[in-house]
Design a protein that fits this description.
This protein has two helices and seven strands; from the N terminus they run E-E-E-E-E-E-H-E-H. Strands 5-6-1-7 form a four-stranded antiparallel β-sheet, with helices on one face. It has a three-stranded antiparallel β-sheet with strand order 2-3-4, with no helix packed on it. The mean pLDDT is 90.
């Protein structure tokens, strides 16, 4: 089982038949077809991917995460559960040295 978190205001994931519908800040929803042999459940912006084939579970989880990787300034995006994203300082901190 791999768990993915969808973080960000207005970011959401939902099941639409044999597809996952991701609304992650693009002008259109992203549809990803779930492969045979995998089970996907979504509750409160946590996507759980499970199946018998460990490699297929990891591959599909990586595909979902690649749609919107967590960005280093606000941390918005799709990340693995427990993944730590290193945050960067913004313009205010970077520009104050001059």
């Amino acid at each position: 089982v791999k768990k993915l978190e969808v973080q960000g205001i207005g970011y959401r994931a939902e099941l639409a038949g044999k597809q996952i519908k991701l609304s992650v800040g693009f002008s259109h929803p992203v549809l990803i077809t779930i492969p045979d042999g995998l089970t996907v459940t979504i509750e409160k912006n946590i996507i759980s991917v499970s199946g018998a084939d460990k490699e297929a579970v990891g591959e599909f989880s990586a595909t979902v995460r690649a749609v919107k990787k967590p960005e280093p300034y606000k941390g918005k995006g799709i990340r693995y559960e427990g993944e730590v994203v290193r945050m960067k300082a913004g313009k205010k901190v970077a520009g104050s040295t001059a």
